[in-house]
Amino acid sequence: MMNLKVPVIIVNYKTYSEATGKKAVKLSKTAEAVSLESGVNICVAPQAADIASVCDAVSIPVFAQHVDPIVPGSSTGHILLESVKEAGATGTLINHAEKQLKLRDIEAIVARTREAGMVSVVCTSNAAVSEAAAALKPDIISLEPPELIGTGIPVSKSKPDAVTEMVTLVKHVNPCVVTLCGAGITKGEDVAAALKLGTMGVLVASGIVKAKDPRKVLMEFSEAITEAL
Amino acid sequence: MMNLKVPVIIVNYKTYSEATGKKAVKLSKTAEAVSLESGVNICVAPQAADIASVCDAVSIPVFAQHVDPIVPGSSTGHILLESVKEAGATGTLINHAEKQLKLRDIEAIVARTREAGMVSVVCTSNAAVSEAAAALKPDIISLEPPELIGTGIPVSKSKPDAVTEMVTLVKHVNPCVVTLCGAGITKGEDVAAALKLGTMGVLVASGIVKAKDPRKVLMEFSEAITEAL
Amino acid sequence: MMNLKVPVIIVNYKTYSEATGKKAVKLSKTAEAVSLESGVNICVAPQAADIASVCDAVSIPVFAQHVDPIVPGSSTGHILLESVKEAGATGTLINHAEKQLKLRDIEAIVARTREAGMVSVVCTSNAAVSEAAAALKPDIISLEPPELIGTGIPVSKSKPDAVTEMVTLVKHVNPCVVTLCGAGITKGEDVAAALKLGTMGVLVASGIVKAKDPRKVLMEFSEAITEAL
Amino acid sequence: MMNLKVPVIIVNYKTYSEATGKKAVKLSKTAEAVSLESGVNICVAPQAADIASVCDAVSIPVFAQHVDPIVPGSSTGHILLESVKEAGATGTLINHAEKQLKLRDIEAIVARTREAGMVSVVCTSNAAVSEAAAALKPDIISLEPPELIGTGIPVSKSKPDAVTEMVTLVKHVNPCVVTLCGAGITKGEDVAAALKLGTMGVLVASGIVKAKDPRKVLMEFSEAITEAL
To answer: Which end of chain B is more exposed for a tag (fewer CB within 10 A), N or C?
Structure first.
């Protein structure tokens, strides 16, 4: 059983300047403060080189953005699950739209993540791909229609049928999988809409990282979750 | 002009268990101790997630094993030059045999590394590829014939002509480029042979990381360099 | 509904010298002769550059080995579904162990193949990956454990449980999908074993292409199928 | 020594509908007719699946758009040099902007192409990459700034300095290499400008394939070459 409290907000830092290095640590402290204040589980996903410093600075769950389908050995330049785990990561994103993976590698990484006692979050682009991913038994599947990423057009309001279909298909294959959605989420009402469609939270990036006041937006998201419960 | 003292020993930690997490820090302290004692420049190249902790622990130059050909922005799961620089890295390996890159991406990464004031080390597989790489004006080119990597058969003794040809071709295209060689280097005499062939040092991995006593081998390498000068 | 007679033997020519150019045409004529004589459906999968000449020479179904996830336009060097269709192909292999694809691209190619009225054969490496692939609704799924490919150790005799599990999981997700298995198939009894495990045929390569007498082996395979019916 | 008459016009068919299947054959016949009439060497580069039918229909040189860095064997779905050679190809494009390759693979493919007695055309994105490519000793290097591809803004008129620099750097490394340029070429005067900058012809795609009257444009290009000689 997955060791991660839901509903959940996962903040993907991507490779944004606003969330690299010291700024990654600062934003993570903000996320932690909002999480403590609101009681809502907020997780952050910084770049590989920032995981250790973020984990040193905060107690909220930290995710890697990607790990490679490798075992320890001769894989110069690749990201080893064990390296992000030892740096303090709780889990990892897998197959993000910006780092898509081969089907077989997704299967291998999900299996390795499970063996390591870590949380796997497989990102998917549509309902059919989500159903396929569910067969691989990850902890979490997050639907992110690529055409909406970074647009500010919320998936939960512009594509509600796609989200509902994803939730239904995933649950049919594997009722244990937690579903999230993402892309274009910038307001509390987008988060509320996501929960109404049957998901257990959101995967968000620019909506927080590039917000003028990330603390305020995270608080708005958290309140939307608290009210929905 | 490159800001890195030569001759140099660069130790690539790959994704070896023996050099991940706390073990990466410990091995880096050993490398630093030998460097201080011998006066020879020893650099280490840990995994992305270990760069920050290694840089916190030691003062010797630290290299990334790879950076992606990206600028800050939406590149989830990729390795941003700025992230490893802020974590403390002095430079980066580029195009290692285990993480080969497109020609155009090598050019882009070398250029970004230069702009960032960092040291670029392009790895190559033979003399023709080295000559091509030299046209891209990296700081260092390291020849590593892939068939010798991890074998313990030293490039500097089993393929001296390939090393000499590489040094000659690289110097012809660009006399400013420092040349190294690697693969199969396990003894001081392999390092001495590398210098005799005209290189300014070695790129080594298992020869140090998997040695019973890495300190002893690093000291042997350093003495070979001191004697050769 | 898929327009392909089962049980079926699909012969993958890979990039073998023995099945390139004129030899691809010759082997296809042999396959056609055995198919006509035995009444068993035998299909061939030559290289892209050989599809047109093979289709000109024989009337049995011809498959591409791969198509890229692209639409007509600016994709120099990629393989367009329309190009292999116009050359005469009936369908295509997708995600072969030697040409693995991203999950999202498999979904896109299966959908394009369906729209084009062509037959999709998704290759998979284990039962979990097969179950995932079934959600994408291809016509055929062929299990080929990569560790057995080219070994002569038949999947149907050495890994019967893996084949049975694959058939069960695929049928559970989508009962319309035809299942095949492959890897190490060299004898009639390997084919008979595959059918007994619930598959509708085999995907074979070196077992036919590199056989001293491909006609004889194809006949043996066909008889095993006829007897099993 | 390269067995290809220069100046030369190479028409890349990409994966355009207008140049797939029967339309590829028709356009190739047009190119042949113009070549015969004008005396200018015009070559065509159709998709892999169209090479055989194009080579059956015309006598002008035919190029593959890409071949993979493989030898005959187990490489399902890849494009084998021998397969396009036997289908009738005279040479191959390598590293087109839409099918970029690893540095080491470019080196391997150029070497294989040379051994097979075929013509290698390495595409490059800027002058530094062209200089690097020249060290690999291909027959032809064609500069195509990616930002101009398909725009109708001719490289030879909008970036004359980049073309001149490319020609100079390539000649310096290897005076035997023939240089071409491409991107945005749609008029005879663009071709004339390319020759004036020191190249020996053009690599063109949409300018011909998507022209209302490809015959007329090809004739205009050919006349520009004849006048320049």
So the answer is: N
Phi, psi at C122, each rounded to 5°: -90, 125
Cβ contact D106–B103 (<8 Å): yes
In terms of CA atoms, which chain B residue is nearest residue D172? B173
Q: Looking at CA atoms only, how far is residue B108 from chain D in angstroms?
A: 10
Mean pLDDT, chain C, as a whole number?
A: 96
Rounded to the nearest angstrom, the minimum Cα separation between A43 and chain B is 16
Determine phi and psi for D60, rounding to 5 degrees.
-70, 160
Confidence band, pLDDT 50/70/90 cuts, at residue C103: very high
Average pLDDT of the residues of chain D:
96
DSSP D62: B
Residue whose structure tokens are 């055929």: C140
A48–B149 C-beta distance less than 8 A: no
pTM score > 0.80 for this model? yes
Residue D159 forms contact with C (CB below 8 Å):
no
- Asked, as a colleague might, if the bond just before B7 is cis with ω within 30 of 0, I would say yes
* ipTM greater than cut 0.85: yes
The single residue listed with the structure tokens 């970036």 is D159
Average pLDDT over residues B8-18: 98
* Res B43 pLDDT > 70: yes
Q: Which residue from D189, D184, D79, B16 is spatially nearest to C15, judged by alpha carbons? A: D79
Q: A13 with A53: CB under 8 angstroms?
A: no
* Pick from A183, A219, A223, A226: nearest CA to A202: A183
The beta-carbon neighbor of A78 closest among B15, B45, B78 is B15
* Contact assignment for C74 to D14 by CB distance below 8 Å: yes
- For chain A, give the percent of residues with pLDDT over 90: 93
